[in-house]
Amino acid sequence: MRRDVTRRIFRGRDLVAVSAQARAAFGDDAVVLRTSSLQVGAASAIEIVAAPHRDVERFRARMTPKPERPSVIAFVGPTGAGKTTTAVKAALHPDAFGDRRVGFVTLDTYRAGAVAQLETYAQVAGVPLEVAYEPADVAPALARLADRDVVIVDTPGRGPKAGDAAEWRALLDAIAPDEVHLVVPATVRRDVAEAVRDAMEHATHAVLTKLDEVPEESGVADLAAALDLPVRWVTDGQSIPTDLAAGVPRLVRALGVRGGIE
Ligand SMILES: Nc1nc2c(ncn2[C@@H]2O[C@H](COP(=O)(O)OP(=O)(O)OP(=O)(O)O)[C@@H](O)[C@H]2O)c(=O)[nH]1
Ligand SMILES: [Mg+2]
């Protein structure tokens, strides 16, 4: 597929030999994404995964968010994708918003227990939480959070076929977030992820969650390339807030995972 990063595995007796192969294939600036040593009986060998420099830089550029600092940021996506957990991680992780003061708004008044789930975290963390049931609630809710630098918006889980999407989209439109992050588990099939993205045309960014559930994070970079949205964060576990990481370095690293490379 056009958007994919070309990668190839090269094997040889030492690094000099395999690097020469990679340069012959991809040019002098070929990027070595991963190096491992192999033991074949008594002999040892080197294996690398390499890619054309241009492909890696294009991938990095596509995945890198613009440097603007958002003040209202929403998390959307399918049920159980990790929206609420990621919203809380982003609010509390020191590398996400640093010293900026954070507030929550939730639009998820549909699922039983959803408000309580976020309320518990908000209370423990001392982050104010507003609940918006209808578009008229939005302006007063944002006004009560006027002293916050960043407002994080949690939304109900909706798959591509949900019939009632119009209701909460009206709420989201009223909030007018600077960034809408599409939350997609790294475990989903690529065609499913693409359908989710096509159904959420508002999305400006993607968050890949549950990287810890994918062996070696194989295929994660390709899933991100298929979504074709910049990635501020990925998540790799249930611990709040520690299991949140910057997206791009992790995705570039995942390019070098051997699984899935022909
Ligand atoms: N292993 C793993 N589990 C995660 C990760 N992120 C979230 N989860 C778990 O996934 C489950 C669903 O997370 P939520 O944050 O409630 O998902 P949601 O998208 O808000 O779900 P709904 O609001 O019901 O649509 C919880 O058990 C989370 O702990 C992750 O990165 N790795
Ligand atoms: Mg939720």
From TrEMBL:
Gene3D superfamilies: P-loop containing nucleotide triphosphate hydrolases (3.40.50.300). CDD domains: FlhF (cd17873). Residues 69-235 form the AAA+ ATPase domain. One of its GO terms (molecular function) is signal recognition particle binding. GO terms for biological process: bacterial-type flagellum organization; protein transport; SRP-dependent cotranslational protein targeting to membrane. InterPro entries: AAA+_ATPase, FlhF__GTPase_dom, P-loop_NTPase, SRP54_GTPase_dom. Keywords: Bacterial flagellum biogenesis, Bacterial flagellum protein export, Cell membrane, GTP-binding, Membrane, Nucleotide-binding, Protein transport, Transport. One of its GO terms (cellular component) is plasma membrane. Its main location: membrane. PANTHER family: FLAGELLAR BIOSYNTHESIS PROTEIN FLHF, SIGNAL RECOGNITION PARTICLE RECEPTOR SUBUNIT ALPHA. This is Flagellar biosynthesis protein FlhF.
